[in-house]
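Marked as duplicate of an earlier ticket. Keeping the data here for the record.
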Amino acid sequence: QVQLVESGGGLVQAGGSLRLSCAASGRTFSRYVMGWFRLAPGKEREFVATISRSDGNTQYADSVKGRFTISRDNAKNTVYLQMSTLKPEDTAIYYCAARVLSGSDYLTDQYQVDYWGQGTQVTVSS
């Protein structure tokens, strides 16, 4: 069983920045493919960003490319999402996600997620 605990959400003005953190339990964090998804009011949950196990390769949704950066610290069992130039449309609950056994280095499909965090609210005011 893997537990994921997010932190760092909050209220920010448009153009501002926030950094989300996700701390994971388990001894084999470096083997987890990690990702961030978000759920906005009236919309389906969508992929935001993902990072591979150990080489740090990343993928992003087009809507956040160039503004968000995902990173991980395997020594701290933590994945981060640095969000900059935030827009009101980024308002959502952000979820950390993990896939433990995967032939792919990326986690972009919510139906392939093995473990979810509880979510953290990000609100961007205009």
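See parent ticket for discussion. The chain has a mean pLDDT of 95.
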